[in-house]
Task: inverse folding
């Protein structure tokens, strides 16, 4: 239990490193000629990274058999939400400064913003229901609700893909990672695993 | 084609005649100084003509004998560091910091420019000979990027029209096409096909002849840094930044509208004209407002980037929603 606590604390601080880097660069004037754009892109990147990291927990656990991993999933997911909030508010406050008319137009006219906002909104119920209490209260529905992460991450990757002008390397890479993570969840993986286990058992 | 009235010019935007006359006078003065400049074309102060083969020391070197221009804006300048570290120059990479990071290997000298197509004097001209007959001018222009940010940059350059006239374009020359150098060994961004290389751009002849259009060889009184399009680039201040093609090696007079790189890449987003227009929506960025680099609050984007007085007449009768 003690070990878990320290690992978790360590991980907790690690997840804050990007945030501290951002704050440090902002405080020292190292965000370049267009700091607002930098903040927006940086926090957007880290939202997607954390969504993908959260999605690696289950397949990693399955493959490695290291069940402890599940204990860190909620925190990673909440960090995805944390960076998503920073990303969203950097758009709302730094970029648009509450220019609701312009924001409304953006949401209607620009598909990448439409799905970006949608993904953010969908994250909110997930974050709210992440407590043990809510888990218990929702019962089976909790799992249903939290499978929204597949949709949210897909929207996030599309949001990134649609916003870049010509260089689609990064969003495509993220898309490939996402698809791989989804493939690893398919049941045939389990079948192969149990098949291999049986074969090994037979041989020994 | 006449489906819409040309963008109405507000009475407040019309230049009073007295100021207009003053401008004319000023222009005549500038032109006559330009002629004088041409007479002493070989004057040693024109550093560009000094040593053709030394490449390393040219970037950042001071240019001299620069004339002033009535077309310059008095707005506060964007700091030199921002102008030279925040660039869209995909030949060196797609990140804004890539051009300054990866353009060190690029050799802007020696340089020659091929003039081709519908003109009486085609040929390949050495950059120094290309520039020597002209008087360098300071042109402090607003630069509006399609990504909804803007800067104010003190370019040093020569009027494009004066330059083009020297090659005696024929009556069939209706457009001018420009091509950027293709050197994947020196321009790492060209190793990947993010865009179709080499970069190409074009203007209608009357746009090219407009006195606002210049070929720039410097900024902030210094030789153009590699990341800003060395050694010579186009500046068309009433159009989105990507029209102002960098590191030009070829200029062709054509009868037909030439292809342009961003239009090839995404025809629905980038048109041939690409005039700054707050009324024409872009699928990625609202063009109503822009953030001036260094500002927190956005400002309203002006029609033709604030150069409507000088260029609106070029598009009289055109539907700018269709010809975006």
Result:
């Amino acid at each position: 239990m003690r070990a878990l606590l320290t690992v978790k604390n360590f991980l907790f601080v690690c997840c804050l490193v990007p945030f501290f880097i951002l704050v440090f660069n902002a405080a020292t004037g190292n965000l370049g000629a267009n700091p607002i754009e930098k903040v927006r892109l940086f926090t957007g990147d880290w939202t997607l990274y954390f969504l993908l990291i959260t999605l690696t927990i289950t397949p990693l656990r399955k493959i490695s058999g290291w069940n402890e991993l599940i204990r860190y999933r909620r925190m990673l997911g909440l960090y995805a939400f944390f960076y998503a909030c920073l990303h969203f508010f950097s758009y709302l406050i730094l970029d648009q400064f509450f220019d609701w008319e312009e924001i409304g137009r953006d949401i209607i006219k620009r598909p990448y913003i439409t799905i970006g906002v949608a993904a953010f909104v969908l994250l909110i119920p997930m974050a709210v229901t992440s407590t043990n209490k809510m888990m218990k209260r929702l019962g089976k529905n909790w799992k249903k609700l939290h499978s929204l992460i597949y949709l949210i991450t897909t929207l996030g990757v599309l949001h990134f893909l649609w916003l870049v002008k010509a260089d689609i390397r990064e969003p495509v890479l993220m898309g490939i990672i996402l698809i791989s993570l989804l493939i690893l969840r398919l049941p045939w993986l389990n079948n192969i695993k149990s098949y291999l286990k049986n074969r090994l058992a037979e041989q020994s | 084609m006449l489906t819409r009235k040309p963008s109405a010019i507000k009475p407040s935007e019309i230049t009073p005649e007295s100021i207009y006359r003053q401008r004319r006078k000023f222009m005549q003065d500038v032109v006559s100084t330009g002629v004088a400049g041409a007479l002493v074309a070989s004057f040693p102060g024109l550093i560009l003509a000094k040593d053709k083969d030394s490449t390393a020391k040219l970037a950042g070197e001071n240019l001299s004998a620069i004339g002033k221009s009535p077309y310059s804006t008095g707005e506060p300048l964007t700091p030199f560091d921002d102008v030279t570290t925040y660039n869209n120059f995909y030949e060196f990479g797609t990140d804004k910091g890539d051009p300054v990071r990866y353009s060190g290997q690029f050799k802007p000298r020696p340089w020659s420019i091929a003039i081709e197509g519908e003109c009486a004097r085609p040929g390949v001209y050495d950059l120094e000979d290309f520039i020597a007959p002209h008087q360098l001018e300071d042109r402090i222009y607003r630069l509006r990027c399609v990504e909804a940010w803007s800067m104010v940059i003190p370019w040093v350059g020569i009027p494009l029209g004066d330059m083009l006239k020297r090659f005696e374009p024929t009556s069939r020359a209706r457009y001018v096409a420009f091509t950027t150098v293709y050197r994947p060994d020196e321009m790492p961004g060209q190793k990947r096909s993010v865009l179709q290389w080499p970069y190409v751009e074009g203007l209608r002849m009357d746009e090219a002849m407009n006195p606002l259009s210049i070929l720039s060889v410097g900024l902030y009184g210094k030789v153009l840094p590699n990341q800003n399009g060395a050694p010579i680039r186009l500046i068309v201040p009433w159009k989105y930044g990507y029209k102002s093609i960098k590191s030009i090696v070829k200029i062709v007079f054509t009868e037909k509208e030439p292809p342009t790189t961003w239009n090839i890449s995404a025809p629905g987003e980038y048109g041939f004209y690409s005039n700054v227009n707050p009324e024409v929506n872009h699928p990625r960025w609202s063009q109503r407002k822009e953030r001036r680099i260094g500002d927190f609050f956005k400002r309203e984007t002006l029609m033709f980037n604030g150069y409507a007085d000088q260029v609106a007449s070029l598009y009289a009768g055109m539907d700018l929603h269709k010809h975006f």
